[in-house]
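Model it.
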Amino acid sequence: MRFHPSHNLFRFYLSSAFLLSLCVSVHAAEVQEFPLRENGSIPVWLVTGPFPNGLPLAHGPGCFGYYKDYLEPLGGEASCAPADGDSVAYEGGKVHWKTAFSEPDGLMNYLDVLGVDNKTPGVAYAFCRVNCPKAQEATLKVRSNDGVRVWWNGEMVHDHHVGRTIDEGGEDRVPVTLREGENRLLVKVDQSQGGWGQQVVIVGTNDQPIPGLTEAIQTDEVVAGRIRSATFSSTPIVLKTPQGPRQMLVGLISSGGVK
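Modeled.
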């Protein structure tokens, strides 16, 4: 048998290309889909930040980060569709998109998720795709700490630059049209000082959660089983039982998203 170097060289290139494709496929982020919680909240997001945002306690033009489109490298705030691990460069630094889980009531605490202090102003983004079985009208119930902008399918549908808390700052009701299939949702929240977070709940025209809604993100993390859908807190009520006094607990349970 004759030895043909060119043939072996071809096999080497072919094998190398095959192995490279395997490596790429192993690390490529996949689209994972999850039901919304039964309270209408979104359990998993892709988040990125923090980005610079001017001086503390100055909710106005001084919060330059609130008005700056930090996502221009990804197509801009209106067009971006990030995946877990995508990087965003800005003057003075670079951040990455990562998978983050909200609390059972839908609260996203950016101080915890981004690992930052509560004294430095900043801006953060959260993104997901909302999938709907049929076209219909809906409302986004939005709470934020502090100012918030919302893009729905590439259109800015909400802009409320205000200093407030999640619990006492009131709820913004944002009407949107759910397309059949995929709907892109991007939320931008700025921070002056103190708490920093967002809460988004989707309801129908009857003000109730919409059956059949799911959400999706592109991530290589194992998400199923990590969605938090129950919390418990104590109450001042003490009950007398045969075993002695027992303090009553209150449980918040949202079954959607649990596996």
